[in-house]
Amino acid sequence: MPVVVILTAKAAPGRYAELLAMMAEALPDTVAQPGAELIRAGGDRAAETVTVFQIWDRIESRQAYIDWRAARGDLDRMGGMLREPARFDVMDLVF
Fold this sequence. Notes:
Elements: E1 3-10, H1 16-31, E2 36-44, E3 49-56, H2 59-72, H3 74-79, E4 87-92
Antiparallel strand pairs: 1-3, 1-4, 2-3
């Protein structure tokens, strides 16, 4: 069953531009992953927050992607740019 994932990443003070640059570099690889159906991102400069909207064909594809990112160290790299842990909301796609 397809899933929707919403990632909310709040940049540490002064690191919003760096977080945006890292995501701009990383998201084309995300789009190319098996099972990625839609990836879009939006930024709120005032709140220094980036939100990424993702649709995956199934939860296993999304988990394989997360495992791949973790093995590369990308999640730790992103975590170092945040003021609090990233939030991942995962839900079933209903329409």
